[in-house]
Amino acid sequence: MPTNISINPAPDIPATADCEAILRSLPKWFGVEAALLEYASDTASMPTLLCRVGEDIVGFVTLRQHFEHAFEIHCIAVHAQHRAQGHGAALMQAAEQWAAERGGRLMQVKTIADSHPSLEYVQTRAFYKRIGYWPLEVFPTLWSDRHPCLVLVKPLTPCLP
């Protein structure tokens, strides 16, 4: 399990290079160079939780807030050498808690829909299902005709006012 998960403590000294290295370790998920660079750059301006093992950053999750009550997992990645060790689930739990403490009631995440043949995204969807995310809607052309978008959601707190 991760030894330390924290919000990026020094936005003026972002962990962008570390996050870019993590993304580069996962070319089957982050193989589009422009998108990879944008996700890495976003860690400097968006709330980003870092997962450290010792001094090494081995994973991160970047959040976007759409409404007072609605947050989105903008990007999550765990270095290829540290996958399947509980780091991703720990990052998600920390992100959900962080959002809930700021009034978040719903968390959403977008991923590739199951109509796409990618075996890697079969793993991704199974991960989200294991940690309590529910499919909400598929947008067949949101990203492109070849990459149908599945939106999953999870209530963080009771959604009643």
Summarize the structure in words:
The protein is an alpha+beta fold and about 160 residues long. It has a single domain (about 5-155), classed as Gcn5-related N-acetyltransferase (GNAT) (Aminopeptidase, 3-Layer(aba) Sandwich), CATH 3.40.630. Helix content is about 30%, strand content about 35%. It contains four helices and seven strands. It has helices spanning about 15-25, 35-40, 85-100, 120-130; strands at about 5, 50-55, 55-65, 70-80, 105-110, 135-145, 145-155. Strands 1-2-3-4-5-7-6 form a seven-stranded mixed beta sheet, with helices on both faces. The termini are far apart. The model has no long low-confidence stretch (mean pLDDT about 85).
Question: How many DSSP E strands?
Answer: 7
* Count of the domains: 1
Q: Write down the overall mean pLDDT.
A: 84
Question: Segments where pLDDT lies below 50 for 5+ residues?
Answer: none
Task: Output the keywords.
single chain; 161 residues; alpha+beta; Aminopeptidase; seven-stranded mixed β-sheet; globular
Summarize the structure.
By secondary structure, the protein is α+β, with helices and mostly antiparallel strands. It has helices at residues 16-24, 33-42, 87-101, 119-130; strands at residues 4-7, 48-53, 56-67, 70-78, 106-112, 134-144, 147-155. A seven-stranded mixed β-sheet has the order 1-2-3-4-5-7-6, with helices on both faces.
